[in-house]
TrEMBL record:
Gene3D superfamilies: 3.10.20.30. It comes from the Bacteria. NCBIfam families: thiS (TIGR01683). InterPro entries: Beta-grasp_dom_sf (IPR012675), Mopterin_synth/thiamin_S_b (IPR016155), Thi_S (IPR010035), ThiS/MoaD-like (IPR003749). This is Thiamine biosynthesis protein ThiS. The lineage of its organism: Bacteria, Bacillati, Bacillota, Bacilli, Lactobacillales. Pfam families: ThiS.
Length: 66
């Protein structure tokens, strides 16, 4: 089990961050990933794997303004 934005997710342990984000159709270019309190930089997404009991926070940037 991996906790993603406060919600338990099953069957994501073992996936790379890139695979996880792609499966969620997340905007990889506009997202910040925090893994267990550490910001993971985009070049690490292909190498960093999620493991059991990880805590992931996904923060998306949305443009806008006046």
């Amino acid at each position: 089990m991996v906790i993603v934005n406060g919600t338990e997710e099953q069957q994501v342990a073992g996936q790379t961050i890139t695979a996880f984000l792609t499966a969620r159709e997340a905007p990889i270019d506009n997202i910040v990933v925090e893994l267990n309190g550490e910001i993971i930089h985009r070049p690490q997404f292909d190498d960093k794997q999620l493991t059991e009991n990880d805590r992931v926070e996904l923060i998306s940037f949305v443009g806008g303004g006046r």
